[in-house]
Amino acid sequence: MLTRLRMSLYLVVLISSVAVASESTVKQAMQKRYPGVPVESVAKTPLPGIYEVFANGAVFYVDENVNYLIMSGRLIDVGRRVDLTEERLRVLTAVKFDQLPLDLAFRMVKGDGKRKFAYFTDPNCPYCKRLDQELTKVTDVTIYLFLYPILSQDSVEKAKAVWCSKDRVKAYMDWMLNGSTPAAPGSCETPVDKIVAYGRQKSISGTPTLFFADGQRQTGWIAADQLEKLLDGVR
User: Do 121 and 208 touch, CB atoms closer than 8 A?
Assistant: First the structure.
């Protein structure tokens, strides 16, 4: 009996070490074949011999020797009807809320402000404007607004004008909801360049991008009812 127990424990350790070695092998093979690609993590997938690679803010799949690579694809759990790629991306691209550079944002507080999220927005982003319409229906939330002008030079100028306004929230919402151009000249010192640099570092490639209290991100427009669920931690 004792011998069987020892053998079982030995097999568990052996299997675990093989899995770790395989993931390490995949990472080494990736770095050898693509030395310019910073591989952040490698993990096994439910498919035998296929590994998940996370690099440059994207997920793709390879075999153990990196002879084959699957890009721009989604791994779906058919039985559960779950997009495993999306599920993993939410985890892999998460940022702890208290590690966000909140000093570079300005706050919009609605109701008691007990819930919170961070919002990277471009003044000329049509989906951000649609999201701002939805935000008028949401209350009891503190929104940390990061001006992230990545669409055009005009976006940069409007973002700086918003920041230099006496009432940033009003200037921002007047523009996004009503098309009223901020009156401030935008000549004061702003954090816009720092925000853009941070966003690129964190692979924020589009707006709107939201970060919730649990650190996970959501990219793109969402309706108010879905936003309420995300704020309450329902996924």
Answer: yes
Q: Average pLDDT per run of 10 along the chain, which is 235 residues long?
A: 46 43 85 89 91 89 90 86 86 89 97 96 97 96 98 96 97 97 93 97 92 91 93 73
Q: Do 145 and 121 touch, CB atoms closer than 8 A? A: yes
One domain, residues 53 and 103: no
What is the reported pTM?
Answer: 0.74
Single out the residue in 92, 112, 142 at which a domain terminates: 92
111: left (phi over 0), alpha (psi -120 to 50) or beta: left
Spell out the residues 6+ positions from residue 209 whose beta carbon is closer than 8 angstroms to its own: 119, 120, 148, 199, 217, 218, 219
State which of 59, 92, 125 marks the end of a domain.
92
CATH number for the domain spanning 182: value is 3.40.30.10
String of DSSP letters for 212-226: ETTS-EEES---HHH
